[in-house]
Structure formats: C-alpha cells, structure tokens
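Incident review: delayed structure delivery

Summary: a single-chain prediction request sat in the queue longer than the usual turnaround. Root cause was a stuck worker, restarted by the on-call engineer. No data loss occurred. The affected request and its eventual output are reproduced below so the record is complete for anyone auditing the incident later.

Affected input:
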Amino acid sequence: MTYQLPHWVWPTALMAVCALAVWRGRDDERLATAALLANWALSILVVRTGNAATHWDVFIVDTALLGVYVWLALRSRRHWPLFAAGFQVLVVVTHLGRAVDPTVSGWAYLTAGLIWSYLVLLTLGYGAWTAPPYALSTADTTEPPGAIRR
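Output delivered after worker restart:
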C-alpha cells in the first residue's frame, strides 16, 4: 500500500514559507524563496505528466536553482544556504541517477525528488524564521554591504 500526499500540500507549504520569508526574512531568504517559487512554476510548465522517465527539462530548471543556491551559499555569512544548496544537489543527482540507471523505478525517482524538495523548503523556512535574531546579533557595520565570507 502506498500513501500519496494530497496535491495541495506542496503549494500550501511553499506559499507559507514564501510568506514567512517576506515577513521575517532578509534579502537572501527572499531571493531563495522567490527562486524556489519560480522553479516550481517553470517545472509545472515543462514537465511531461504521466511519464516516469528522466525529466530533462525539469533537470535544467533544477540545475539553475542549484546555481542560485550555490551563489547564495558562497556569499552569505549564514549556514542555511549551504544546506539548501546541498539538498538541491541531491535533487539534481536524483535526475542524473535516473538517467544513468533506467531500472530505477519511477516511484523511487519521483519520491526522492519530492523528499529533497521538502528538505530544501524546510531549510528555507528555517533561514527565514531565524533571520531577524541573526540580523540583530551581527549588527557589526565594519564590513561593507555585500562583502563575501573569507
């Protein structure tokens, strides 16, 4: 017996995290959630439904999102972008794993991608929720805005 989440759970969770990022997040959190929202919308546009084969169009969209998260992780002083980028790497590797081994079932392929996506969303929610205390505790203005971590 397999259990499937209702199709409204992901959009509801995504909109809740986006609202949290707008309410409590800073620029990094807002950019990350906006990129995830754009990724979701583009994935809906390009995906071929009913096909468990490797979704190359979605792979390209997910790789672009990975680029955004890696860029955020390299320039941010916080640690949550590293985890978001790491989970997004797993999303991309899941696509590649399905391409390399077509005997991986469609259920496993889609479920793995779903699990990694929820972990990315959870990471973004954590980043947005903890943004104000972090911003207050690092009110040191000795570094110019946009300075990178060394």
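Verification: The helical segments are 9-24, 27-46, 56-75, 80-100, 106-129, 131-137.
Action items: add queue-age alerting; document worker restart procedure.
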